[in-house]
Amino acid sequence: MGMLTNKLLCNPVTRMTSYKPNLEPTQDRMETAFVVERTNEIERKLRDIIVAYLSIECKTREKFVTEILLNNALINLSAKVKAFIHLSNINEWPKIKSQDFQVIMNTRNAFAHNFKNEWHLEIEVDDEGNSWLADSYVFIESVTGSGNLSKVKRADALYNFTQAYAEVNERLLDILKMHSNA
Asked: What are the two backbone dihedrals, phi and then psi, of residue 96, each rounded to the nearest 5 degrees?
């Protein structure tokens, strides 16, 4: 063994036993938290609507369906959306555009899993050589259901998400109110 190897074996590196996360509230982190938390809220409302529709009288069984069968780790958001759309169609509930659900799910995935934070700067120059910053943005990427790569400005994705969220949330609240009054 070489001298360096002997040193490493004889003098082990002391490891930290506790790590602290960097929770500095940057704009990117706050936007990502907004998207993820609002998507979780939509998923919770879908779960509550499905459970209310089932009208389970036994509280133990209702708790099992709510906490186990419809748990996010077992039944994903996409499956809950499909079940909801089916129930919506057969019950003539207020319609929600499936495109709004797609925007919510795709944006959530892009914000949660996109690690590219490259800034793009657009500089404009006039005929006299004067230049200025015309736009600056970050792209987020996602792969569409058809397998194509999609690049969208982060701010545009956030705007589209917020509009879809507001529409879906309002319709889900209407349906929850219908079930609470039944």
From this structure: -125, 130
Q: E strands, 65-125, where?
A: 119-125
DSSP E strand boundaries for the chain:
119-125, 131-143, 149-153
One-character DSSP codes across 109-162: HHHHH-----EEEEEEE-TTS-EEEEEEEEEEEEE-TTS-EEEEEHHHHHHHHH
For the record, the structure tokens of 100 come out as 């709004």
- Rounded to whole angstroms, what are the CA distances from 42 to 37, 89, 91, 153? 9, 19, 20, 23
The closest alpha carbon to 49, from 64, 63, 66, 37, belongs to 66
120-164 residue pLDDT tens: 677 888 899 888 777 776 778 777 778 888 788 889 999 999 999
Phi, psi of 151 (to 5 degrees): -115, 130
The confidence score (pLDDT) of residue 140 equals 82
**Amino acid at position 42, single letter:** I
Cβ neighbours of 154 (radius 10 Å): 20
> Helices 27-54 and 154-181 sit at what angle, rounded to 10 degrees?
30
Label the pairing between strands 131-143 and 119-125.
antiparallel
Query: Amino acid letter at 112?
Result: A
Amino acid at 150: S
